[in-house]
Amino acid sequence: xxxxxHAVLLNFLEMTFIFIALLVCFQQRRAIGQSPFYMAAGFxxxxxxLLDAAEIKGNIFGGMNFRIGDTVCYLPVLGAYLVxxxxxxxxxxxxxxxxxxxxxxxxxxxxxITSLQCNWLGFSISSGLSGATIDMLLNSARREVNxxxxxxxxxxxxxxxxYTKLRNWKWPRFFAVSGALFTAQAACVMPLVILRLxxxxxxxxxxGDQIARAVVNLWLxxxxxxxxxxxxxxxxxxxxxxxxxxxAFFGSYGRxxxxxxxxxxxxxxxxxxxxxxxxxxxxLDREGRIRDLNHAAEDKLGRPGDKLIGFRLFxxxxxxxxxxxxxxxxxxxxxRFKCExxxxxxxxxxxxxxxxxxxxxxxxxxxxxxxxxxDELKSAxxxxxxxxxxxxxxxxxxxxxxxxxxxxxxxxxxxxILGHVDMGMMTHADDPELCSRLDRIGKIAEQAGHLTSQxxxxxxxxxxxxSDVDVSKLVEDSQTLLGPHAANRVALHKEIAEGSWHIQAxxxxxxxxLINLLINAVDATAEKESGEIRIRVGAAKDSGFPFxxxxxxxxxxxxxxxxxxxxxxxxxxxxxxxAKAFEPFFTTKPVGxxxxxxxxxxxxxxxxxxxxxxxxxxxxxxTTFCLYLPAYAPQGTQTSR
Length: 641
Known about the structure:
Layout: H1 2-27, H2 29-32, H3 35-53, E1 57-59, E2 65-67, H4 68-88, H5 90-118, H6 131-168, H7 173-199, H8 208-230, H9 244-251, H10 253-276, E3 280-285, E4 290-293, H11 295-301, H12 305-308, E5 317-321, E6 335-341, E7 349-360, E8 363-372, H13 374-427, H14 432-458, E9 465-470, H15 471-486, E10 490-496, E11 502-505, H16 507-524, E12 531-539, E13 561-568, H17 575-580, H18 598-608, E14 612-617, E15 623-630, E16 638-640
Helix pairs in contact: 1-3, 1-4, 3-4, 3-5, 3-6, 4-5, 4-6, 4-8, 5-6, 5-9, 6-7, 7-8, 13-14, 14-18, 15-16, 16-18
């Protein structure tokens, strides 16, 4: 009795070891492929048929026996097959069924060849057995194996069908698995019962085979339930028809393979698309931790993908729009927002994002799709600045045209006034009081004429006398003329770079430009205890400001220009004042202190000389006028235009 118990336990351990070995092959299919699993299952089926053909049996108790092949070798294969169906679906079951069918076909083929050989005239083996005797023995074994194989094929259909049906009825996995295995066992017994009833042979429902298979089925059900629950993350057989495997197998295996290939191709295609799009695509969990991301997200975040898995993405964001959204409160509906990536760093990027909640395998996730709009915002800002600059230039041009027309008409009136003043003084030379009044009228008219000249200069319609002008000497003369006005009110500094700085210009007009700017600088520093004015002259590349010629200048090389820069540490200008600084008659000075024509005349004169002005100013931080003018190599010529 003890020896029988030891033998049964040994068989039970062998069966468990075989089943666990199959599960290990199945579990490692992603690393070593699925071939080892299928090859091991096929080898065990062949071994089952050999053991059944040899009628190798084990003893339980009381003279009850069980077949070693069906119990120890075949049932682990059936259990592993059920695991494959549960976790991989119908197609995996098809692979195994087709493999078993092919093995059975090979077996039939070899059996027929062997039977033909046995019927050859004079065929015998070394023991002296005749061919007829051998053929009879082989046919007996073949009938047994054929019956077993057909029953096994029936098991491969019945087990997944019953499992799916029980799961659809909400049975727990253990009971669904055990129910499937017991149903397959009952299906194997019923044909034998019907056959024996038809032939009148005695039979027994409860046999050693049935008892051994029942115990093994319960044990395998427990192992399968634990494995699927702990090792596999998804069960693909939920909510399917129990006859799917039958219809799929008898429908078209080729179409199933083609569909599988198409799905794999589309999956690879979409993976390539998602991996290589320029937008950031990040999969987040409900806590904001990264679960997956594409190459663009890796580039923007500056770290490899494997280093970012589990990282809290929103810790590197500063939400800018909407400002009231809290990243700690993740949305339950699609949301659009803008943010700064890595604010405070040297490479801040602006992102426009959409955040969408999704559900994958009962898991709540978030899909973030982000677009880098840093360059777009920069381009938009530059476009806005250029638009404002163009609008300002067009407005000044319109004012210039208007000022030129008014100045010409006004100049004609002034000449008429002066003519009548001269005639009145000649006619009434003996009336000193009247002549004095007429002389006063003439001086006022001459002052109005100077104002007209300034308007014509702004409109580029004045008369300029062009000559070779030494900028260094021009600055010296302007400083000398400013001396009485500045007195001891400000400290004046000059920085003239080494070299010869010449331009072709009207020296009188440029001197007036510099004096106007210097007087404005003195007035701007009037309330400063230590006012400072700085004059710089040098090559355009050393100005410290962008070299940006206006559109009407056209292409310009920075090496062909010099700059004259006048800076002060005075009160500065607001943005509104800067926008109107060069308009005629605009001034911030009190009534009677200025006409508002100083900066407009400066603008007109510099523009006439094919130059432009760069203005930098801020309230409380002073003002800088940087005049860009074409440099000239002295030749001593003089022209007028």
